[in-house]
Amino acid sequence: MLTIKDKTFVPFITADAIQARVQELAGQINQAYADKQPLIVVVLNGAFLFAADLMKHLSIPCEITFIRVASYTATQSTGQLKQILGLSESVTDRHLIVVEDIVDTGFTISEVRNQLAVDSPASISVATLLFKPAALKTPIDLHYVGFEIENRFVLGYGLDYDGLGRNTQDILVLE
Ligand code: 5GP
Ligand code: MG
Ligand code: MG
Description:
The protein is 22% helix and 31% strand. With 175 residues, the chain is an alpha/beta fold. It has a single domain (16-149), classed as Rossmann fold, CATH 3.40.50. One magnesium ion (MG) binds at residues 43, 46-47, 100-102. Its cofactor is Mg(2+).
């Protein structure tokens, strides 16, 4: 159990389950991208631990870069997106794997996809640790999904509540 400010979070996905699943996803990516030298595009801040663990299990030649967007305040999606910041690499003709912590309404990832697509990458796929199908409001192709979860607010393993709580190995859920 973890209390942050006024909220109590209880265990949801264990560190062991996360690590096992991340390894499986990495295995799938290793097969699909063996000859593609992908550019991993990590959406900060939430995906930083997932991306780090995923990278450790990629055995193919690949590059990594980090971008930033922000659309979320406290526990409610605002649906308002800021632009992509921090992408200095050219994505033209590159095979991109966008790495996200969680897909909720889907607005963030679809906006990121659209903006990346402007520069004509060879392909774009999405790897998200968590996915809330019931919250989805825009159609989106998710190629690598760690866990489908119910529509509840989660935290830990990179995901925050108001900036706090990213530093756990497990994922917790709002009680
Ligand atoms: P979307 O644009 O898909 O609605 O939301 C995507 C972003 O909202 C995620 O990258 C994440 O930062 C935040 N988010 C969505 N659901 C949750 C949640 O349950 N917990 C936390 N900590 N962040 C969430
Ligand atoms: Mg995110
Ligand atoms: Mg957040």
